[in-house]
Amino acid sequence: MDAVSHLLRLARVMASLDRRCLLGGSTRMNVPPRRQLEAHFHVLLKGECRLQAGKTVLKMKAGDLVLIPSGSPHRVITPGDGALRTTTETVGDSFITTNSEGGGAAVIDLFCGHYTFAPGAGAVLFRSLPDPVHVSFGDSPETDKVLRMLSTLMRGEAQRDDAGTSAILSALSTVLLAMVLRTSRGSATTEALWTAASDPRIASAIEGVLDDPGADWSIERLARAAAMSRATFLRHFAQDTGMTVGAFVARARVMAAAELLGSSDATVATIAAQVGYQSESAFSRAFRSEVGMTPARFRREQRRQAVATALPDGALGT
Questions:
Q1: Which of 80, 118, 171, 211 has the fewest C-beta atoms under 10 angstroms from its C-beta?
Q2: CA-wise closest residue to 301 among 176, 119, 36
């Protein structure tokens, strides 16, 4: 399985399109923070605007997507010389339509939504990405063609807003995330996305580790498989992924372990061995470094949440 598909499966990503923003000039739209284990995304289908996240200001044009893995608050500002306007909302069956206060012709067509992901593997994946991620799909004819097709589908479905619209827009939004994760540096993508290694030899190494995290993935073995010297492999890996080989292998093993902790009754020691650790203590240190809690606590939290989800509302209080 390719790396991006593998990561999306481990992360158990679900997408929701929250609103379509048809905003006029000189409009400011404040976007509140998401909850834990949720990330914002915005895809601009028409026009130009700015997105301000903290001290970072991104200039978006048609064909751009911004992902905010942390789910932090930010604002969208459309161009114009007039006094800044706020927004109004119209609630539909599948999503909210946002317009500029006072009306007027729309200068942007912006789809806004969020991704929900699993604790453990999902949290590790999204935390490992730059924040924000800014990708321009117009950088290449191939991705531009795909985005144009998706744009047509999303616009058409949004206008229809009928039975199945939410599910269709959710599926299309998941496609957008897969495109982001496989997009290497471009005019907008200034930071390395480790999920989008451009060197096929490095990409093959990443896929190998994700497919079999418990194997003995020494640097020498990976370098031989890539037909490179040890020093050359280390240099190319760092350039393509923005991280060291050791950090990547640890991350891949922790993501696989998180899946096993939530889906099996195997002991922590057994899972540690399955994902390539010779000692439970070394595994626990690596897991806590990536996830923020010990494997045992992570498993307890997952089981507690599973029970709470299965019970009727209020049952835990009786």
A1: 171
A2: 119
Domain match, 51 and 152 both:
yes
Residues 6+ apart with CB under 8 A from 156: none
Q: Closest by alpha carbon to 53, among 169, 134, 156, 135? A: 134
- With tokens 């946002």, the residue in question is 98
Look up residue 37 and give its amino acid: L
* Predicted structure pTM score: 0.88
How far is residue 27's CA from residue 33's CA, in Å, rounded to a whole number? 19
Q: Is residue 177 part of a domain?
A: yes
Residue 162 has which token pair? Answer: 């009928």
What would the pLDDT profile of 218-236 be if each residue is shown by its tens digit?
Answer: 999 999 999 999 999 999 9
Q: Is 148 exposed, middle or buried (0-12, 13-18, 19+ CB in 10 A)?
A: middle
Question: Which whole-number Å values give the CA distances from 104 to 82, 121, 206, in the listed order?
Answer: 13, 45, 50
